[in-house]
Amino acid sequence: MIKKLVAIVLLALLLWGAYIAYALLSSPPKFTARWGNVTEASTEVVIQGEWSKPIILPVSMNNVTMNFMGLTVAWTDRVKLSEKNALVVLGIDNHNLVRALFDYLNNGQNGTAKISFNGRLLKVIPLKFSVKRNVHMDLLGKLNFTAESKPILGGLAYTPALLSTKVRWGGEKGNRGILIADMEFYNPNSFPIPVANLTFDLYANGIKIGTGYLPKSTVIPAKGYATVTAVIELDENVLPKVWTLHVKNGEESTVEVQITLSTTILGNTVQIPLKTEKKVVKTNIMEGINEALSQLTRG
C-alpha cells in the first residue's frame, strides 16, 4: 500500500514537472519592470511576470534584492505569486542609491548592477539565481556648457566666450562630491582679461546641487584662449530630491549653471554673468533592468 502511494506521488510530481517544463518552454514567461511610487526617501521598482498557461508553482519568494556597485540599494517590499502571474515590488533607498552613484563615479563611470532572487520550492528546496548587467553611462560628458560673447560697458568691451566645458570627477570631500570643470574661454578684446574669481552655481531640476570656486586666478590673453578651471562641490543631501524629480520626469533632468566672472576691464571692476544653455541629462536605468530580466527567458 505504501509503495503504491509513493509511486502515485512520484508519478504526480513527474507529470507536474513535465507540464511545468512544457508550459515554460512552449510559452516562456514575460517579465517587465517599471517605476512605482517615488518619494524623496524611497523609490519603488515594480516587476511583473506573466505566463500564458496556468502554472501551479509551490514556490515562495523570500527576498529579491538589487545591488549596484557592491551596495544593496533595493530589497523586497512585497511579493505576490499566482498560477497566472507574479508581482514583486522593490523599495529603493534613495540615499543608498546616491552613495552607490558616488562609487560609480569613483570607478570611472563604470559599474555593475545585479538583481538577485532568493526563494524556496516546496518550502524545502532553496532557489537562488541572479541576473547581472554592466553599466556604463557617461553622465558627466553631457555637461558641456557654452556661452556667447556679449558687448558690455556700452560696447567698449566684450565678455569672453565660453567655448566648451569639460567636467570630470574629482573624488569626495566629506559628504560632498567634487567635480572639476575645465572651461575653455576666448577673449575677443584687444587687451587681456584677468579672471580673479568666479562663482559657479550648478542646478538640476531647479534645485541647487553644487557651488564652485576658482582655486587660482587666470589671465585670458588678448585675442587668445585660456582654460579656467573651477572646483565644484556637490551637496549629497539634496541629490535624493533631484533623483525623485528625475524619475518622475521619465529619467530626464534639466541641468543648468550660473557662472559669474570677476575681472577688471579698462580700469573697471566688473562682474560678468555668462548666460549658458540648459542641458538635458537622460538615463536608461529602467531599460537596462528590463533587458536584464529578458535574459531570464532567453537563458
TrEMBL record:
<dbReference type="InterPro" id="IPR013783">
    <property type="entry name" value="Ig-like_fold"/>
</dbReference>
<dbReference type="Pfam" id="PF03168">
    <property type="entry name" value="LEA_2"/>
</dbReference>
<protein>
    <submittedName>
        <fullName>Conserved secreted protein</fullName>
    </submittedName>
</protein>
<dbReference type="InterPro" id="IPR004864">
    <property type="entry name" value="LEA_2"/>
</dbReference>
<dbReference type="GO" id="GO:0009269">
    <property type="term" value="P:response to desiccation"/>
</dbReference>
<dbReference type="InterPro" id="IPR013990">
    <property type="entry name" value="WHy-dom"/>
</dbReference>
<feature type="domain" description="Water stress and hypersensitive response">
    <location>
        <begin position="162"/>
        <end position="277"/>
    </location>
</feature>
